[in-house]
């Protein structure tokens, strides 16, 4: 990208929108391909609300926000049994 005078401009790197996204990015949070996943991690908890289950990670921080939800079929570098 160039400015008005033809000089190259370094494009800014997008910042994560929240601390939850930053945690997931830094800890390689991705879809699991084996039996090691968030569903059987010692840090994961689930809560029932209106007949639905919402999975949260105690390392990530639990809140009533959708941003702190995790998928039990995913895994990160902090997984422990």
Provide tags for this entry.
1 helix; 81 residues; two-stranded antiparallel sheet; two-stranded antiparallel ribbon; mainly beta; elongated
Helices, strands, pairings?
Blueprint: H1 19-26, E1 30-31, E2 44-49, E3 52-57, E4 74-75
Q: What Rg do the Cα atoms give? A: 18 Å
DSSP strand (E) fraction?
15-25%
Structural class: mainly beta
In the sheet with the most strands, the strands line up as 1-4
The chain-level mean pLDDT equals: 89
The total strand number stands at 4
SSE order, one letter for each helix or strand: HEEEE
Number of domains: 1
In whole angstroms, the N-to-C terminal distance is 48 Å
Helix content: under 10%
Largest sheet: 2 strands, antiparallel
Contiguous helical run count: 1
Morphology call: elongated
List low-pLDDT spans: none
């Amino acid at each position: 990208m160039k400015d008005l005078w033809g000089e190259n401009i370094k494009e800014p790197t997008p910042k994560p929108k929240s601390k939850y996204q930053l945690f997931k990015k830094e800890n390689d949070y991705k879809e699991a391909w084996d039996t090691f996943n968030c569903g059987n991690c010692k840090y994961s908890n689930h809560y029932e609300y209106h007949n639905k289950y919402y999975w949260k990670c105690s390392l990530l921080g639990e809140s009533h926000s959708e941003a702190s939800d995790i998928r039990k079929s995913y895994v990160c570098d902090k997984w422990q049994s």
